[in-house]
Structures are given as C-alpha cells and as structure tokens.
Write a structure and sequence with these properties.
homodimer; alpha+beta; 5-stranded antiparallel beta sheet; 4 helices
Chain lengths: 108, 108
C-alpha cells in the first residue's frame, strides 16, 4: 500500500465555498470510481489558499488505475465542475494538476 | 476516530534536510509516546516551504493526550531539536504551532 500527500491551491474564498459544497455531495459515480480505482482513506483538507489531499493506494498498477479514472465519463463531468475552482502550483511538474509531496515521516 | 490535517512551514531547504534526517530516526521514546497518546497512521509530507501532517486520533480525550505528550521528557527533548527548524504560519491561532486544517472531503 502506498500513501500519497498532494497539494494544490484554491483560486478564491468563493471557489473554496463552491468546492466544499460540491464535495459535501459528489456527483453520482464519482466516489464509486475512486474506490474501483483502489484509492482508500481519502481525505481533503483546506486552509487559506491551500488544499491538501491524503489517500492510500491499495492496487498494483497506479498508472493504469489513474488512466481508468480519467476515462470515466462521471469523473470527467465531476472534474469539469471542480477543476476550474483549483489553481495548480506554479512549480508543478509537467502534466500535473495536484502536486505530489514527499513523505518524510510515517508511524503506523 | 478523528482525522487531522495540519500545516506548518519549514524555515529553509537546509532545515528541511535536517528535519528529514531527524525524522528518519526519531529520538528514543518519541514514537512510543505518540502511540501511547492514541495517534495512529501518522504521515508527514513536505513540498517547497510547506510541511503537511495527517494522523488519526483514536482516544477519547484529545486535550488530555496532547498534554500528556507535552509533559513527556523524551518528547520535550525531541521538540527542542525539531521545532527550531519549523516556522508556524503567520495566521496561526493563538498558542498553535502546527495549524489545523478543515476537512472538506472524506471517502473510506
């Protein structure tokens, strides 16, 4: 199992309110696809202009599962609504939306 | 069980290297006290000037457990080493070191 920490910015306080509203009641199929793609214990936290995501990947082919998620029409419809509220970090890697963080400590 | 997300800054890239070195091999008793104070699945991630912590509290008196941790000599010796590497957020709440974030999404 691999633990992920990821960062991104929210564009504005108004967009944060929209983001929270949408995530309080995700569109049909979105959560189901996340589970089907082997992500679990998924939390998103906010503070100021930052969002932080923590999740655990329990599958054996992360790239394939992420490609599966990206190809899902329900997920695409969801991303069309929530992605415009977010601002990727200026120093993100090529092609990234959320930016992966480095794990520096873990205690079970 | 309550999930926590917390943010803080690291003072410099050099301090981040020291922070990573110390957390790769915490001082004796530090991890044991964290477990004894009912924190589990504890990860710290870094990116740029930010540190993000995720942990799960499984006890029934968070304030009492945090007071117990703060009173532990091993934990105090550890904090004397690692706290000077960190910079609390400018807009932190009175008395805070790490700043709590708001949970905006959770999927088991």
């Amino acid at each position: 199992m691999k633990r992920f920490g990821q960062m991104i910015k929210i564009k504005s306080p108004e967009d944060l309110e929209k983001y929270k509203m949408h995530h309080a009641n995700p569109m049909p199929g979105v959560n189901e696809m996340i589970k089907e793609c082997n992500l679990q214990n998924y939390s998103i936290f906010s503070r100021g202009e930052y969002l932080f995501a923590y999740f655990e990947y329990v599958g054996d082919d992360f790239e394939a599962d992420m490609a599966k998620m990206a190809a899902d029409p329900n997920t695409q419809a969801w991303w069309d609504v929530v992605k415009p509220l977010m601002q990727p970090l200026d120093d993100r890697a090529e092609g990234d939306f959320w930016s992966d963080m480095e794990s520096v400590y873990y205690l079970a």
